[in-house]
Give the backbone structure.
Amino acid sequence: MIIPPETLAELRYFQDEYIAAIDDDRLEDWPRFFLEDALYEIIPRENEAMGLPAPLLRCENAAMMRDRVASLRHANIFEQPSYRHFLSAMIVTGADESGIRLRTNYCVLNTNVEGSSAVYQTGIYRDVIRRTEAGWRFAEKRVIYDTSRVQTLLAYPI
Amino acid sequence: MIIPPETLAELRYFQDEYIAAIDDDRLEDWPRFFLEDALYEIIPRENEAMGLPAPLLRCENAAMMRDRVASLRHANIFEQPSYRHFLSAMIVTGADESGIRLRTNYCVLNTNVEGSSAVYQTGIYRDVIRRTEAGWRFAEKRVIYDTSRVQTLLAYPI
Amino acid sequence: MIIPPETLAELRYFQDEYIAAIDDDRLEDWPRFFLEDALYEIIPRENEAMGLPAPLLRCENAAMMRDRVASLRHANIFEQPSYRHFLSAMIVTGADESGIRLRTNYCVLNTNVEGSSAVYQTGIYRDVIRRTEAGWRFAEKRVIYDTSRVQTLLAYPI
């Protein structure tokens, strides 16, 4: 479970590329960060703690993520989110043949249509990341959020 | 005072482990980040600037930190904090036989019992960090906070 | 356009030094992060997106930045800002003889005179950074902000 510092730096950069793609509204790039059979889900902390299912968003492969992006692009969205993600506390929690396990604090600040910026959501990422010939990819990304008032914008990737 | 980049990366990771332990509610691990005779204190910026004492929390060694954790675990706490720390601007400000001196911006976002997330506290860490056989340890950690409305939760480590 | 990881680490540290100088109120150091003929501007996102000029602050060289600092030091400022910057998602977007291009998420949390801390501004930095004999320097720093309620404090560097 010793991860060389160069690998840690690469993983950090990979996470930075991931959040930059969302924040720059390059949603079409979002599924490309995942393996084809990757799991992506957004789940409230209470459910995670109690082992309950009921995620607010669950994609069981990258095709479902591409569908989600297509829906978002064609939906009549009342208020387009304007996110800025910030990450901290990215820690290795395990490593085996399935990949490297990471936990990372995230927060998303959002600026609403009136131009006011505020904390929108906090939580942690629980990721499994695997090296492929094309670079690092998420085999699993579980977004476990603390904040309960997140309904309206939740269709968006975090 | 030239710190090799590998060492900086290690110090950054050490800080990330520290905040992850607090945010994941592994408070029992908190004193383990310190040398046995380490100083930990949380002090308002005004007092720091004026050289006044009167910290809001002061532990003069790791034993006092363990006591603090035991108290927190047994206390009847009205509202359990739910922190997410974020760090930035970690800069080396000195290095000698006592250790490496760092200043780091921190913010803590908190999610209250209603599930609403907001900025709870901002400030800087002024740390002295020393390498031991068991890894890096704080010889001194001074938490100098900007925010004055922090009383109720202040018993918790930052 | 392959940037070695050591260089990325240096650029990250350079950005951290930049924000620490502002947050520690060492404004006199601020122009020293720039080449003498560097461009610095703070511009609202809408204007950037539409290719409009009208930045809220524009310095076309370091001399203008030094003037700006002198003005700020002598001005009768109603409410001194107390900033904490946080950076994330620092991504290389290009590299050529003019320097390395980076985009970086920033947020600034501010603590007002009553001691209350809140999100003050979010946005991105679009930087061109060049290596000189004296170290890294900004050839260009464009601060593109999301938040529209930023007028009163805008004279300050971000």
